[in-house]
Amino acid sequence: MIQAELIAFYLLSAIAIASALGMLWVKNVLNAALLLILCLLAVAGVYAVLNAEFIAVAQIMIYAGGVLVLILFGIMITVHTTGKVPEMGTQNQWLGLIAAAGFFLLLAYCLPGIPNQVAFNSNITTTQSLGVKLITSFAAPFEVSGLLLLVSLIGAALVASYRQRHE
């Protein structure tokens, strides 16, 4: 079973890295957004393989489901108003690749001992216990964050409607 998890981990990691690198070389913003969705879904799969179910679901719902839908919506509105898909410049792709490689090497140097120090205890961070704590012990911060998101959504709608009326 551990061998299958290791293979899944490496396969999902390779997909995430390949799609992230693909974003550096595509010129079409829509294709870059689709590659970003693939990368975020692969990262969610890595979280699932590592038994972090809540983070995997949050990754899918918040990033792949929410943020990327907004990005795609913005691209589609831009296409509708201008008549063409915006293109990205690739003038700094090598600088970005060097920075990413440097960051990877820094992480590879600093983090090798950390997985051995972490004791995986399934009783501490299960999704069910997290849900119970959110509804009981942390109900107030959970509700306040929901209200904050609601207020920001209403503010964004007001700003958008104000700009549309005055243009």
Please give a structural write-up:
The structure is a single chain. This protein is mainly alpha-helical and 167 residues long. The protein has 2 domains: 1-104, NADH-ubiquinone/plastoquinone oxidoreductase chain 6, subunit NuoJ (Four Helix Bundle (Hemerythrin (Met), subunit A)), CATH 1.20.120; 121-167. The chain has 7 helices and no strands. Helix 1 (2-25) packs antiparallel against helix 2 (29-49) and helix 2 runs antiparallel to helix 3. The model is unreliable at 114-123 (pLDDT under 50).
Please outline the helices and strands:
Blueprint: H1 2-25, H2 29-49, H3 53-82, H4 93-110, H5 114-117, H6 127-135, H7 139-165
Helix pairs in contact: 1-2, 2-3
Outline of the structure:
It contains 7 helices and no strands. It is mainly alpha-helical.
List keywords for this structure.
167 residues; mainly alpha; Four Helix Bundle (Hemerythrin (Met), subunit A); single chain
- Report the major sheet: none
Cα-based radius of gyration, to the nearest Å: 20 Å
Number of strands: 0
Shape: flat
CATH architecture descriptor of the largest domain: Up-down Bundle
Q: Give me the CATH fold name of the largest domain.
A: Four Helix Bundle (Hemerythrin (Met), subunit A)
Low-confidence stretches: 114-123
Helix-strand pattern: HHHHHHH
Strand content: under 5%
Give the averaged pLDDT, no decimals: 77
